[in-house]
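Recap for those who missed Tuesday's class. We walked through two folding examples back to back. For each one, the amino acid string is listed first and its predicted structure tokens come directly after. Nothing is annotated here on purpose, so try labeling regions yourself before you check the end of the notes.
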Amino acid sequence: MEKKNTLVLVGISIIILVSIASLILSYLAFKERKNIQQVIVKVEPSEYKIFVPTLPHELDFCGEKVPLEDIDVKERIERELLVNVYWYSSTILAIKRANRWFPVIEPILKKYGIPEDFKYLAVIESNLSNVVSPAGAVGFWQLMESTAKKYGLEVTKEVDERYNIEKSTEAACKYLREAYSKYRSWTLAAASYNYGMNGIDIQVSRQKTKNYYNLFLNTETYRFVARIIAMKEIMNNPEKYGYFLKEEELYKPIETKEIKVKSSVNDLVVFAKEHNINYKILKLLNPWLRENYLPNKSKKTYLIKIPKNNEYFAIDE
């Protein structure tokens, strides 16, 4: 009986000790949490600050001065600077992608006599990716089907050259060259890329001015040119606006070689394997191929890209 009572007392003592320990741990945890909350409350306001980016005193687009003394123009540019400086993910991707695609775009702009600043038009249109708009505009340069065909691109179910970066850049250059020939202003040519030459013609005639900055236009076209100018400023001076990307963080150009194809290809999966790559790589490098086959009744010469070496992608054994 005495032994049984002793065991009961030991058990009660253990329960009491465990309870006390639990209370002590709970108190310490509460105290630590309170300390952390105090630190957060103390640190957040002083450490996290948002600044308004300083608008440069002078800006230009294609050598044409931006009249920042005009309060409307100044505030439009500032709006797009604010939006894109603080739209971190999109702007970081633009800077990373530019390292891969600007070397492709720049020589084509030069070939057609188009100022290099227009490479930023592709940035604000698509963020340098093959996107499709709700209206059906496609690719880096956001070309509608009718515009693409007008400037020499093939657009069919199987082949859509709006997805071909070189050919779509050439089509955009042809449009811009025509617009500049009409307006003798690169800024107005850029505005027409968004508004259409017919729309610009109507407004120029109605408002009796060919100065883009003096035209009263829709909000989308107002923002379009301002966004190009803002992205040019940010991407030319990334560190000024808080973007510190290392060289190794930028997307590298992919070296490719071209295969001439003058006949139909019944199965592009087989075609890819014959050239020691997989179908995924073929489609990534040639997004203008819209099906898994390539009909070619007219015996047209197509140039299909494959990587110069296989270090860029994982390839099936």
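Example two. Treat it independently of the first, because the proteins are unrelated.
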Amino acid sequence: MSTPAHPDPAAAFMAPGGWRHGLRYGLLGLPLAFVALPLYVLLPNHYARAFAAPLVALGFVLLAARGIDAVLDPWIGRWCDRLAARSRRALLGVAGACAVVLVLGLWALLFPPAAVVQAGAAPLLAWAGGIMAVTCAAYSVVAVAHQAWGARLGGDEPQRARVVAWREALSLVGVLLAAVLPGLAGLGATVVVFALLLAAGWWAWSRSLAPGDRSIALLGGGRSPWHAPAFRRLLLVFVINGTASAVPATLVLFFVQDRLQAPAALEPAFLGVYFLSAALAIPLWLRLVPRLGLARTWLAGMLLSVFAFVWAATLGAGDAWAFLVVCALSGIALGTDLTLPGALLAGLIGQLGERGQREGAYFGWWNFAAKFNLALAAGTALPLLGALGYEPGTRDPAALQTLTLAYCLLPCVLKLIAGAALYTLVIRTPRGAARPHAAPH
């Protein structure tokens, strides 16, 4: 008689008491999402207002630092694979050291030395660019290592979705906390809270369910993830869909202020409803995964997003309360974007026979694509709007129509293209097609 195969560690997330495993693994997602808001949203405004940094030069410096960070991600992923192959203790130790660098870097960015501030704009921008590059690199090491750890837990589609859902749901809590805390307690307290949350997240992760020893293998070189056609297909869907989400994220405040002419007091409510709806919807989407599968459930989320943005295109001045419903619906759809693509990638790595060996390499390129989406949206949407005649604060009907087309209908077109690509390239592709014809030597 053959002995029954041991279940993958991810199966424990579905068992009674599985919430403990989910909390221990996913808690680190909260501070990582928490710090992303100060790094990418608050920092430019803080430097412009507190230190009178020139906006154009500041934008160029921060964009260059983020570009360096994005380019490093694939290399960071391969490095994390080597650390994991050496030992889990080595991986956790390096991630812990990078977490310390991350805290110190955030403090140094928000509170540059007085001598640097007094030296003028050029030294201040050089300080911001250098510290930003180091801080973002430290962030990427922790994030990629954490994501790859979850993928190594294996499991079937519902189990993988549950693992990712814990990480992303707690990430949404971090986003909501970071959106509120700086205004209530100040930037200094925000950094202190972040440091405490990051320490707690790392400690919980170090005591979380670990990948089985049988899934950890020493690297023997291996080919780039780009050699796998199935990865290229899934990444294409991820990039198109991510761009569709990044465009409205870039333009939402312009749409609220100029098209809806909503009171400024409602702006936090719009964002809060959006992210809270995403967090609350994740358990509902997880219940669909066993019936529809990961890919079809993701497709359902894309279609719901299209419906929400088509409705938003019909709104105008004074429709702020209707837009709250739009935020809720699009937030519900966001729940699929946060949880299901990463679970699909984890399953694909297993199908390719590279589980426990190259998760970091795959997630390094995955994170590069995610950052590329944000840069592409910011770098094209705003200049395109300006070229078509839109300026912030305008009430010209033609300019506002241009804004509506960019905020509402362009994401719909991109979402539909992403949905069609998901259906044709992933859903209809035979599962066996993911496997390489020959194992890499």
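Answers for example two:
Confidence is low (pLDDT under 50) at residues 214-221, 436-441.
The chain has two domains: 20-221, 224-436.
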